[in-house]
Amino acid sequence: MKETLLANDHYQTLGLDCSAGTDDIRIAYRILAARCHPDRNHKPEAREEFLRLREAYEVLVDPDSREAYLNREQVRIQEKNIAIDVWESYLGQLIKGNL
């Protein structure tokens, strides 16, 4: 299955789509940080959730780091999708008996 940009990324962590602006990112972070901060949320996974949330916020709130992140994600997804295409072609040829 081919991957798209919104699959398991910083935007998803913040509950936003990739068209979200800086203000949306800040608001989402504040709301989610209040819910999962380890000082307020005593679940064992709260610290890990908070760190993942903070990383997403730090990357997306800065326009330069957001652009670099989106560029890296695009390249990663393109490379993964190319590999999927190669395997699909190979398996198709194998099934047809052409290999």
Automatic annotation (TrEMBL):
PROSITE patterns: DNAJ_2. Pfam families: DnaJ. Residues 9-73 form the J domain. InterPro entries: DnaJ_domain (IPR001623), DnaJ_subfamily_B/C (IPR051100), J_dom_sf (IPR036869). One of its GO terms (biological process) is cellular response to misfolded protein. One of its GO terms (molecular function) is Hsp70 protein binding. It comes from the Bacteria. PANTHER family: AT29763P-RELATED. This is DnaJ domain-containing protein. It comes from Acidithiobacillus ferrivorans.
